[in-house]
User: Which sequence fits this backbone?
């Protein structure tokens, strides 16, 4: 099912920094210089679908072709900001599909600390999202900044909460009429 | 490069309301297909290089191999995006039959590609054939339909069981049971069915 899933595809399009471990002639076009060689140690941002597959493809030789690093969305400073105050971090500015990106990246780098921080952040923000969905405060500045900082997953959560509430209210009114 | 055009194509599926279609982007699809063509050419060239050097394609891991691997991964990525575009749009086209009936308004028809129009016609025809054979109009009230279909499998069920089935059907369809005004049982060729007016 996730082969056709639009969110999965868009998540995979997000980039992470990769360092080449070998000289690969002919791959210069990845860096914008077609025909040149990709030197060992050169760092570029590759999309997830490419980076992950290249990093795991190397099974035989001693030198790995690529080494991956954490994307900028999951650097230490972001994690620290989340530990400090989950609700004020602008997640959307980091990556539009933040949690999905973290999910994919943590499959490769196993890091319990990051997992714990992200779970806590999600929990705290989900409570805040439910609050916003059920009590819509039009025009309040902090409310708007928070809502603008939601990533795709949180947005669908917000929409689900909001639409659910609306549907229940509509059903209640239809009951009263009949 | 990097399947950027393909990702752009998939992004067209988001944005706007759920169940709404944008115009079929023939142009972008052709560009992605052309990109696939050039990746394919590159792939063939690199494999030919490896063969000329006498290396075994299955096991060698030299630069040509990695270049070919990247071309291959780009091809599968473009394929995935193209397929997802068609698949998700086909989903919406199918739901249009249920929402709007057999004839679509003109502004909608202009957004569909020719193959999507054919798909809609074929799906509509298949649905009509099924409904005619079952003698059942599925596009009307889902509660009656579900209750009837469910009971088709049981013979001589008790009233309580039928009501339980009805409640289950309502929760499946997401409709609340507002009021059960009349409940009759009829025997049709050894099958029981419930007709409930809601």
Assistant:
């Amino acid at each position: 099912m996730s082969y056709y899933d639009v969110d999965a595809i868009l998540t995979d399009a997000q980039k992470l920094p990769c360092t080449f471990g070998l000289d690969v002639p002919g791959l210069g076009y990845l860096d914008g210089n077609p025909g040149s060689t990709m030197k060992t140690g050169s760092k570029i941002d590759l999309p997830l679908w490419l980076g992950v597959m290249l990093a795991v493809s190397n099974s035989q030789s001693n030198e790995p072709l690529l080494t991956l690093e954490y994307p900028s969305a999951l650097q230490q400073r972001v994690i620290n900001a989340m530990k400090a105050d989950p609700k004020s971090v602008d997640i959307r500015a980091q990556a539009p599909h933040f949690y999905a990106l973290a999910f994919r990246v943590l499959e490769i780098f196993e890091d319990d600390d990051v997992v714990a921080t992200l779970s806590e952040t999600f929990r705290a923000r989900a409570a805040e999202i439910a609050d916003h969905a059920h009590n819509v405060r039009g025009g309040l500045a902090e409310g708007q900044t928070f809502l603008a900082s939601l990533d795709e997953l949180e947005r669908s959560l917000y929409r689900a909460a909001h639409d659910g509430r609306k549907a229940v209210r509509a059903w209640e009114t239809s009951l009263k009429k009949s | 490069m990097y399947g950027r055009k393909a990702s752009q194509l998939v992004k067209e599926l988001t944005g706007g309301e759920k169940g709404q279609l944008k115009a079929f982007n023939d142009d972008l699809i052709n560009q992605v297909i052309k990109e696939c063509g050039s990746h394919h050419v590159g792939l063939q060239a690199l494999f030919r290089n490896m063969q000329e050097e006498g290396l075994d394609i299955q096991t060698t891991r030299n630069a040509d191999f990695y270049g070919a691997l990247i071309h291959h991964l780009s091809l599968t990525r473009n394929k995935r995006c193209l397929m997802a575009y068609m698949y998700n749009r086909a989903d919406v086209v199918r739901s249009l039959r249920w929402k709007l009936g057999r004839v679509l308004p003109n502004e909608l028809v202009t957004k569909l590609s020719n193959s999507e129009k054919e798909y809609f016609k074929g799906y509509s025809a298949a649905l009509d054939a099924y409904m005619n054979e079952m003698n059942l109009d599925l596009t009307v009230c889902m509660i009656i339909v579900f209750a009837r279909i469910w009971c088709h499998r049981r013979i001589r069920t008790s009233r309580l069981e039928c009501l339980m089935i009805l409640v289950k059907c309502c929760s499946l369809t997401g409709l609340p049971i507002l009021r059960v005004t009349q409940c009759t049982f009829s025997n049709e060729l050894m099958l029981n069915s419930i007709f409930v007016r809601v």
Q: What stands out?
A: Residues 152-177 of chain A form the longest helix (26 residues). The domain at 72-177 of chain A is CATH 1.20.58.2050 (Methane Monooxygenase Hydroxylase; Chain G, domain 1). Residues 97 and 152 of chain A are 5 Å apart (CA to CA).
